[in-house]
Write a structure and sequence with these properties.
Helix content is 33%, strand content 45%. By secondary structure, the chain is of the alpha+beta class. It has a single domain, classed as Roll (Nuclear Transport Factor 2, Chain: A). The chain has a six-stranded mixed beta sheet with strand order 2-1-6-5-4-3, with helices on one face. The longest helix is centred in the first third of the chain and has 22 residues. Keywords: Signal.
Length: 160
Amino acid sequence: MKRIKIIFLPLLAVLAVTAVNAQEPTISSEEEAVVAIMKKYKEALQNKTTEGTFELFSADSKVFEQGGIEGTYANYIEHHLGPELSHFNRFEFSDYMIQVEVGLPYAFTTETYTYTIELQAEKGASPRIINRKGVATSILKKTDDQWKIIKTHSSSRNKK
């Protein structure tokens, strides 16, 4: 009986530790790399710049926003977001969460957040504050050991 306890108790301990570790979610290096790409993009927007963001997107990327097709990221920056950023005093994300699923060579992200934009005041007026709840989904592809955003879609609504 003592021999069974001597063998059984260490085995039970190993199984218990393995079960606990199996329940803890692990983040792969690929997921970390994808999160880093999305974080760089978010930080650039908060800094009201597009500098360094073109390398995050594939040349033939597709951007969809608020039910509209914006074209490639370059087109989106030139005709939409780029000019808008120059009218912002502040652009902040809060309550930010990201989920990542990797299935090489693709990765899929879902971001949820609240954003606050303070628009520059027109002459004699107070700055306008926009506060919205948003969601964005993106598809990234790994090519030549680099993750690039190939499609992104975002939408938002007024905060309740």
